[in-house]
Amino acid sequence: MSERILYPEWRDQNRDTKYPFSDSAKMRNRHGVVIPNNLFVDAIIHPIGGRERMYLSRVIIQYDRAVLFIGDVGARERCFGIIPFSGTLSDKVELQDQFGRPAGLLLGSDSSNLLNLASWGQGSHEFDIEDSEFCANVCVPLPVNGGIRGFILEDGTYVSGDVWFVGENGVILDYVTVERRDFTAEDNQTETLDGIVINVVGDPLFKRKFCDNVFQTPRFIKRIKVIGPNGQIILTPDPQGNINFYTSNRLSSDSPLRLIGTENGIIVGVVSPYHGPQ
Amino acid sequence: MAHNNWYNTNTYRSYPFLEGSVNQPPSGPLTLLNLPNEVIVDCGFVFTCRSGFSYENHRVFLKEIKRVSNNVFTFTFSNDIPNFSGYPLVFTRDYSVYSSSTSGGINYIIEYQQSDDYVFDLSTSNCNEPIWYGFLVTGKLESLLTLLPNVGDTITNTPDSTIVEPTLIQNNSQSYVTSINIANKDRTRATAPPGCPPISWPFPIGQTYVKKKCLGKKVCFVPGYNCDIKCYKNTIQCCAIKGSGLGEPCSEIPLFPNEVNVLSTLSSLSGAELCNSVLLSINGISARLFNFYNGGGVVITPKPAEHKVVINVNMHEGEKCYGSS
Questions:
Q1: Rounded-to-integer distance, Cα B49 and Cα A61, Å
Q2: pTM, 2 dp
Q3: Chain B residues close to A169, C-beta within 8 Å
Q4: Tens-place pLDDT, residues A109-133
Q5: Three-class SS of residue B265?
């Protein structure tokens, strides 16, 4: 006499049913590839920006792994999960979206059943919504417009969580509060916003930063002490960093001393009256 | 054909816990492995962005049931995420309320809870957020009176007991922005020339200096010195353009409030000489190695050890005119 378990355990109850696929799912694609009922026993699928009618849209079989894509009415590849055919076996297939954000979990009936996907043959196996739609109760799509989800850099890097803007290499960030009048409000109220000020001021010492191994700090001349017959004076550069040498002063307008500039210095000499033109 | 309803069905099976992690016959000290199926019939949890939860590596479990007073029991759920085990979810059941409203059937009680906030910045609660949320549905509570006969009694878990089905967990780890913060890395600091004593800094250098944490809900970007900010569709483009934004700065911008004061003895905030404090040119001629040439009638004597050049005009060997034949 056959025996019926009145209250089967949750996973046992689902093991031989289509769940988490919907009752109407055909569980096979147009090429006859069959999704076994006991492949998964439960799921939770919550991609950001997901829409209705989520389904298993594509299974790519490679020699060492299977990649499962979940789609919906808006996109065929909303998130994906990987089942490795070697290493530590697990009955969990973690889902993630294109930026690596968690997007849910497919729970296999056991890890060996997941390995049976290797028998599908290498290549891409496509499914339509009618073939492999999930039950609505396992799909919890998160709204895409719930505030800022993250920042995407030009190279595709995705940043979320506690995000830090850090200035360096001549960029200094500052903080200000910005008063902004809200013209949409009835009383034109002003609101105070947090402002990030971006200052580009350069890095005067960039050479030593990027040539740290070979850079030697120069020893600059900052003052010239002139010692003459009338004592000594200290010369400091003008605002442009320049010091001028002159050959005459107010007492003598016909000094024989000559200073001639060259490309990298000065020629100091005298013009002798004995050799001058007659 | 009549079917059992959802909660009722779950009073007869391990759900929402893994099969084998609950309702085991007693063998030794009482633990949550021995918790009857009928006590908890459903639960669900949502992990927030900072939790770092992973389905593969972490688990949620009922950690403890405690009888805190004659009629009140607490159910404490925890997880094994490193650093966050100290953020339990505690649900409370008053047995007198449960029993008084029972009219023959089971009084299923639903309760929502959230963990303590994760405090990101002590100075503001702007971006604090619970690590996780959850709900608990309890079924028959009568057995707790027997399992926990005295006030203060507790049943605790074992490593394999009362583990929650993973599909009852929604993982939002790293799924959104929890806070925006600004900081600046240290400027390139000057080093002393060879042979000179090293520059002594009154604070540790090479740090990242925090400017502001937990900016508000609405944030705007403001072009500062030599900066232009453009928006194109959903892209914010910051350009370095000399003179744009606030123009060119009149002085250096400190990285932290009193940087100017603590470095008052140095020429600049980086410790380097300012451009107008060193000799860049003589008579407008700039050269890394500046030469003094003897043009006749003078004697130029270098004295490197004394950092001195002696120019002695002796009027001998003077030329008629430079450049003339």
A1: 32
A2: 0.78
A3: 185
A4: 888 889 889 899 999 999 999 999 9
A5: coil
